[in-house]
From TrEMBL:
Name of the protein in question: Uncharacterized protein
Organism: Sporobacter termitidis DSM 10068
Top-rank lineage group of the source organism: Bacteria
Amino acid sequence: MSNERIIRLLISKSNAYKDGYARALAKGDTYAAKKWKEGYQLIKERIYDLKQE
């Protein structure tokens, strides 16, 4: 799979993580919100790395 296709999939996944983070915050679940945020940041880092290749 080309980097461009992987990046598009990761962007879609990052949107899901952002939504999960927002839902966790709305429920007041700080532990889950932290996990969603960490996952989102890892995806953004991977996207950045793929763009650099």
